[in-house]
């Protein structure tokens, strides 16, 4: 909920290869009042149907303006794909029962005139999956040609991994990425900071071993994958309950310990890999990356970022969303059952038409088996739709 990521890219199919050419990406903060309303609606807080309706509309309008700005900045497009803002992920007895993303796509279609693919998680959940992490489809195509076992790591509010090259496809949420760090930063600064910028607060403290042990005892970490979680579990109320039993904790020590928790839970999930390729907002936190690098070094696993493999670390999820919309438009599944737990491959999402009658490409004759990242062309100009 820090803001809205947007990316533009050219996508094409060439035999069994999907080609993705990044054209640019950026991020915009939510209007402060909207962000506070979104945070206030997160469980365990109570909310109303009226508030959810208003938030769905306001997030949709915000997405619409970000999309329109991206079209002005990066050039015309054929399709918009929106992953939405997760407000609740319903998991019961280890099984995902439902998921709710806000950001009404009709506002995007109305503002841009383009068809919009949205609500991308629900079909996977209906098919017995967790609806997350959906990044498995990109990672399996993108890193499948690398030798050995690669782990693609995304550090967002929740951290998730995709294991590529192992005995079976596997992807799941490892636990909190930035969620508890952000909650603590807001708590210790009285809301002045939305997150621990550059890990500055954590850098002033030391890891509290007793607090870290309590945090690591959370039952989620012992669950077998596939599994998923969210801010309905790892949130400020969760943090307050943990701190109630730990006595006084200095601000720096609290942030240092939560940073170490994220590093420890990620590193534990990455044992045995030949490499970890990281992306997401957490890669901008040097204290977190240093802690993670140290933890992974204990397991003999090197850490790099997705930039080294052609995908910008801070834009990867937006490019994933573009790929998911592209696959849906071409009649191709966007989930990897082994990573979400779904019963099989499924076409994802719902399509809201733009101003013109909806005209989709002919269904693809072949499912892609690899993803090639192409360099942006000099003085790029949009090509005809393919």
Automatic annotation (TrEMBL):
UniProt GO MF annotations: kinase activity
Pfam family, one: AnmK
Protein name according to UniProt: Anhydro-N-acetylmuramic acid kinase
Entry keyword set: Kinase, Transferase
InterPro entries attached to this UniProt entry: Anhydro_N_Ac-Mur_kinase, ATPase_NBD
Gene3D superfamilies noted in UniProt: 3.30.420.40
SUPFAM superfamilies with a match to the protein in the record: Actin-like ATPase domain
Lineage: Bacteria, Bacillati, Actinomycetota, Actinomycetes, Pseudonocardiales
Species of the source: Saccharopolyspora taberi
């Amino acid at each position: 909920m820090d803001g809205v990521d947007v990316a533009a890219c050219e996508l094409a199919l060439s035999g069994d290869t999907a080609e993705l050419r990044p054209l640019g990406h950026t991020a915009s903060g939510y209007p402060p009042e909207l962000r506070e309303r979104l945070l206030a609606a997160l469980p365990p807080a109570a909310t109303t149907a009226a508030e959810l309706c208003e938030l769905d509309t306001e997030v949709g309008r915000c997405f619409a303006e970000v999309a329109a700005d991206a079209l002005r900045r990066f050039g015309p497009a054929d399709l918009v794909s929106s992953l939405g803002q997760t407000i609740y992920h319903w998991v019961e007895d280890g099984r995902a029962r439902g998921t709710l993303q806000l950001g009404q796509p009709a506002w995007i279609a109305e503002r841009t005139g383009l068809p919009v693919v949205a609500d991308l998680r629900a079909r996977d959940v209906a098919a017995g999956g967790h609806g997350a992490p959906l990044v498995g489809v990109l990672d399996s195509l993108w890193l499948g040609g690398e030798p050995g076992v690669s782990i693609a790591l995304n550090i967002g509010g929740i951290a998730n991994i995709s294991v590529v090259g192992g005995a079976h496809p596997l992807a799941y949420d490892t636990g909190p990425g930035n969620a508890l760090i952000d909650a603590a930063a807001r708590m210790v600064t009285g809301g002045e900071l939305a997150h621990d910028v550059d890990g500055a607060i954590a850098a002033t403290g030391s890891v509290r071993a007793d607090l870290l042990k309590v945090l690591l005892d959370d039952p989620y970490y012992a669950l077998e994958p596939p599994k998923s979680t969210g801010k309905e579990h790892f949130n400020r109320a969760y943090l307050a309950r943990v701190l109630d039993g730990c006595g006084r904790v200095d601000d720096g020590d609290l942030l240092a310990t939560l940073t170490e928790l994220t590093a420890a839970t990620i590193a534990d999930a990455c044992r045995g890999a030949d490499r970890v390729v990281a992306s997401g907002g957490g890669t901008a936190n040097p204290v977190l990356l240093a802690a993670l690098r140290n933890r992974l070094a204990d397991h003999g696993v090197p850490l790099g970022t997705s930039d080294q493999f052609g995908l910008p670390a801070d834009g990867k999820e937006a490019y994933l969303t573009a790929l998911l919309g592209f696959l849906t438009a071409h009649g191709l599944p966007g989930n990897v059952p082994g990573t979400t737990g779904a019963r099989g491959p499924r076409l994802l999402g719902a399509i809201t038409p733009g101003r013109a009658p909806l005209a989709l490409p002919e269904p693809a004759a072949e499912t892609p088996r690899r993803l090639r990242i192409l360099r942006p062309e000099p003085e790029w100009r949009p090509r005809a739709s393919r």
